[in-house]
Amino acid sequence: MNHQTNNCQLPAPCIIESGILVNNEDIRRLINDLTQVRYIHDIDGVVQNQGQGWILEVFNNPNQATIVVNNSLYINIQSFDYLKLNQVSPYETYFDLIQDNRTLRLIPLATVHQEQQQQASKNLGFDQDNFDEMLGEVFSAKWDVQCDDDFI
Question: Quick one: three-class SS letters along 14-42?
Answer without folding.
Answer: CCECEEEECCHHHHHHHHHCEEEEEEEEE
